[in-house]
Amino acid sequence: MIRLEAVSAGYPGRPVLRDITLDVRPGEVLALVGPNGSGKSTLLKAALGLLPLTGGQVLYDGLPLEKLTPRERARKAALLTQSRNTPSVQALRMVLHGRFPYLSYPRRYGREDEAIARGAMARTGCLELAGENVAQLSGGQRQGVYLAMTLAQDTETVFMDEPTTYLDIHRQIGIMETSRELAREGKAVVLVLHDLPMALTTAHRVAVLEAGRLAMADTAERVYRSGVLERVFQVGVHRMDTPQGVQYYCVPRGL
């Protein structure tokens, strides 16, 4: 388990996170939601040790993050970033980059590495793109390749920063289903999402950030009933029962 204890972090002259305490639990999808600039992406960076803390600590299975080597960290948690460069490289080779934490120098991929990479591509629906140049793929296709690279890292925790970007609705639903599958396998999955209904429907818990502070973290239903989403986002949030289960939707406030 990853635990953030009273974490504060930010950038020179610009504090962002303030006193965040939050658990990232195995077997669970945790959705991070909040208005733009509330600190969602910063929280991911702080949890991964990609951003120095100005207060508090991050614990990996009870061990302070700074006690782990970069390779040890990379074997425990993977990150699908929001923005990235697009290299001119074969898609399968790109996905194999996820195996770096398990290779010694010089990096030589084995049969197991390629099997894991191809399995990750099959899981994200992009195996047929294995021989294609990533730079020539569509935005949605690239997202599938990068997600496969993240899964090929085979970590206990998977962080995804706005993973549905560039994806059509079919693939968005697929990402959510994959997240739940990973949780059922015992992994901890953290999703930064702007789509509130998708977050409420998919996540076991929802953490709401407001101006760098944790406004609430609880089950989707409890977060919904608390009214914190309507206050933070200034929209009406409603729910309805359907044959497929509870569905949530948002409307302009007052409707």
Fold and architecture overview:
Helix 4 crosses helix 5. This protein is α/β, with parallel strands linked by helices and 255 residues long. The protein has one domain (2-85, 156-252): P-loop containing nucleotide triphosphate hydrolases (Rossmann fold). It starts with a strand and ends with a strand. A six-stranded mixed β-sheet has the order 6-7-8-3-9-10, with helices on both faces. A four-stranded antiparallel β-sheet has the order 2-1-4-5, covered by helices on one side. It has a two-stranded antiparallel ribbon with strand order 11-12. Helices cover 33% and strands 31% of the residues.
Question: Can you describe this structure in just a few lines?
Answer:
The chain has 255 residues and is an alpha/beta fold. Helices cover 33% and strands 31% of the residues.
Q: Name the CATH architecture.
A: 3-Layer(aba) Sandwich
Helix content: 25-40%
Summed over residues and divided by their number, the pLDDT gives a mean of: 93
The total strand number stands at: 12
Rounded to the nearest angstrom, the distance between the terminal CA atoms is: 41 Å
Q: What is the name of the CATH topology?
A: Rossmann fold
- Structural class, by secondary structure, is alpha/beta
Low-pLDDT parts are: none
Q: Kindly provide the radius of gyration, computed on alpha-carbon positions and rounded to a whole number of angstroms.
A: 18 Å
Whole-number count of domains? 1
Spell out the CATH superfamily: P-loop containing nucleotide triphosphate hydrolases
Oligomer: single chain
Instruction: Please write the string of helix (H) and strand (E) elements.
Output: EEEHEEHEHHHEHEHEEHHEE
Q: How would the global form be characterised?
A: globular
| Neighbour order of strands in the largest sheet | 6-7-8-3-9-10
The number of helical elements comes to 9
Strand content: 25-35%
Specify the CATH class.
Alpha Beta
